């Protein structure tokens, strides 16, 4: 099961440049969270602070009861074994094959034999559609493939906490959808705590249980996705819609003259180019694939939302109720499909399904099978 990560009063600067200050949030154990914000607001820096790669000037990061800002190097080394990290650029060793990159954590942190390591690595490469690319070097493949290889390495120890820095960057929309589904399946299978840094609004609206947003060196909001998606906070609404008009500018601080000019355009009926999607409607959250366990996090999350429902505007309550009803219907249909397919030969069925997925394909790089844990 995933572990809770508690951040209290975190402040980070590089020299005289303050990145963010007094950031306080809790990543609930076993839940999926997303961190949004304009480019340059320090989201990647925040991830690095969570695993002790960067040391904050103030505040604490408590992981499984240990404050990593104050612990010894030995304690930090042990805590890091709880994490799987997908860095923004993949962060692969350029002189190692994709197989050896993925195997590296197993060889570093376990005493498994090479035969067992090979089985685990090939399973993880297969998960991200790279089963036929294990012998290639990072320089011989595309940026999107390097990203997927980085995810395979992040999963190889079946971590309790998974940090994903823009998992969709460099990927086409179809593979982004597969990666998103894979993260939900992982959460269902091992109840891992997951934090996703992303600019992808579709991911933010459909994948996480919780959403936060960094802006102007502060955490604007963090909490259940339903609260942020129905928020009237101007920066949040502008970011979700992708509109030019609002407090977010080309540089993080929009000057008064630009804001006044944009207001004149808006008053004249000229739009800011944002999406016209109705963000008062909460899209149902993506569910695990049929045959996967129910997400334990879903029930915990819903209970927390119910407890704070009375604090929300009527319009937000209505949107949340409608979303919950839609999600319940999806779960019922998923359970029906799972029941219809369950004939006592689950393992054989999964094997047959995988063969069918790859039938007619020249390479397994075109598919992402459902996640299965327990080999690490």
Describe the structure using short key phrases.
globular, 10 strands, alpha/beta
Could you characterize what this model shows?
The chain has 376 residues and is an alpha/beta fold. The strands form 2 sheets. The chain has a 6-stranded mixed β-sheet. A 4-stranded antiparallel β-sheet has the order 2-1-4-5, with helices on one face. The model is unreliable at 344-368 (pLDDT under 50). It has a domain at 239-267. The longest helix has 28 residues, at 314-341. Strand 4 (58-63) and strand 5 form a beta hairpin. The chain is built from 13 helices and 10 strands. It is globular and about 65 Å long. Helix 3 crosses helix 4, helix 3 (98-109) packs parallel to helix 5 (143-155) and helix 4 (114-127) crosses helix 5.
The description of the largest β-sheet is: 6 strands, mixed
- Structural class designation: alpha/beta
Strand content: 15-25%
Question: How many distinct helices?
Answer: 13
Low-confidence stretches: 344-368
Q: How far apart, in Å, are the first and last alpha carbons?
A: 14 Å
Dominant shape: globular
Helix percent band: 40-55%
How confident is the prediction overall: mean pLDDT?
Answer: 85
Spatial strand order of the main sheet:
6-7-8-3-9-10
